[in-house]
User: Fold this.
Amino acid sequence: MRMAAVAIALVAGIGLVIQLVAIVNRIGSLPSAIWEMGRYFTVLTNFLVAILFSGIAAGLRMKPRLIAGITLAILLVGIVYATLLQGLQTLSGGDAVADVLLHWVTPVLVPLFWFAFTPKGGLRPIDPLLWALYPVTYLGYALIRGAAEGRYAYPFIDVPALGWGPVLLNVGAIALGFVATGHACVRIDRHLGGQSSRS
Assistant:
């Protein structure tokens, strides 16, 4: 389990470093590059993945509820990218490598880790709503920052371009999908937990 956690932490960490270097090469400033990266849910969530799995790799005991919440968040990264964002930009070099690591590899590896290694049976029906606090908080931050800077992190929350109605519909659909997937995780957790207790 710890070796799997090491691999996931490395993938997320390397992806973030490659992305940072690529942005620094474009804009020439490390602080500005860090600030730029901080606008994206993908980056923030992969940062959480790197921290969480570094802790697991170091032997720290992480609550299954925390692992499941971050699993759901990184799964959201992969699904939203695959369905709404893929192909909107032509990437090359470090940007292309980071794109694969942060949008494809970690969103696959983290759920596999949760399924294979995380103790099951302890998740509660309320947990999906608690997990949703993170993306909801990010949404508020992204909208405020987008309004202040005149540039939004993602086209589906671009209020000046779309208007509030379509943005709210987009956000509502993503939120419903997030919570529904969270409840599916709880059901899977309970099913697998029941199997473990009977074996």
